[in-house]
Design brief:
Layout lengths: L1 H31 L9 E3 L5 E3 L1 H16 L5 H24 L8 H9 L5 H20 L3 H20 L6 H10 L7 H22 L6 H18 L3 H27 L1
Antiparallel strand pairs: 1-2
Helix pairs in contact: 1-2, 1-8, 2-3, 2-8, 2-9, 3-5, 3-9, 4-5, 5-6, 5-9, 6-9, 6-10, 7-8, 7-9, 8-9
Length: about 260
């Protein structure tokens, strides 16, 4: 029993430190040689300061690498994590780059554009992350209803963290706060909680210092990883409760986005 408990603790520590180390390494490499040039990854934040988006790509990569290498994680959990986190990060990065000048916000705006024949970067993100969430949920759960709920939780968690990425440190802080209870769980859920926490911890100082931001790439990737941890540690009732809360949060966020867009 002691040996099993020690193995679980080691898995969580390995996931946290592995994600933190990989994130810092990728973050440093991106700062030195940003793909496509530095200007492509620069944005003005809420205060008008120029920051880079390197933290987003770094945290997505660091989280996925940590989950792929942490000891004791089942093969299906590794595959689900790689799929959901990298897809969420990739779709988010696409929106960061190609949706930078698009003032439309919220699900309704992007779905409305789609009905008129325009595929926005936000629509690509919405459907891409949703599909990846469902595929990852199908890897982690056996029954059809559980697979669907798992997909909603993974995609919904990705969206929730992105909604919070409005000021320095908020999304990263939310990841640390939401993931902390998951560390108390054993097995897969504990390790999958530790990975995004380690990645967020690695860049939160630069985020708060307004040198970088998570952007859509990092916020969605970290949120998806938290969703995977929630799915791994819950049965159908827990999944249903989380899914309901996330849908409510998404609906509220969409209303706020429309209100801001109308100002």
């Amino acid at each position: 029993m002691v040996a099993v408990a020690g193995s679980r603790v080691l898995g969580r520590i390995s996931a946290f430190l592995g994600a933190a180390g990989a994130t810092r390494a990728v973050y440093g490499a991106l700062r030195s040689r940003p793909p496509g040039g530095a200007v492509l990854w620069e944005r003005k934040n809420y205060a008008g300061r120029t920051v880079n988006l390197h933290a987003g790509l770094a945290t997505a990569t660091g989280t996925a690498l940590a989950a792929a290498t942490v000891p004791g994680l089942p093969a299906r959990a590794r595959s689900a994590t790689a799929l959901a986190v990298l897809a969420a990060g990739g779709c988010g990065a696409y929106d960061d780059v190609f949706g930078a000048g698009d003032p439309r916000r919220g699900f309704r705006a992007h779905l409305s554009a789609l009905r008129h024949g325009e595929v926005t970067s936000g629509a690509v993100k919405l459907f891409g992350i949703g599909a990846a969430g469902l595929a990852a949920g199908a890897l982690l759960k056996e029954r059809s209803a559980d697979k669907l709920l798992a997909g909603v939780v993974i995609a919904g968690s990705a969206h929730l963290v992105n909604l919070l990425d409005v000021r320095p440190g908020r999304a990263a802080g939310a990841v640390l706060a939401i993931g902390a209870p998951g560390l108390l769980r054993g097995g897969t859920a504990g390790s999958l909680s530790a990975a995004p926490m380690g990645a967020a911890a690695a860049v939160v100082g630069d985020d708060l210092g307004e040198r970088t931001m998570l952007g859509d790439a990092g916020a969605h990737a970290l949120g998806a990883a938290l969703g995977l941890a929630i799915v791994s540690g819950n049965g159908r009732k827990g999944l249903a409760a989380h899914a309901a809360g996330l849908i409510a949060a998404a609906a509220a966020g969409d209303r706020v986005s429309r209100a801001v867009e109308a100002i």
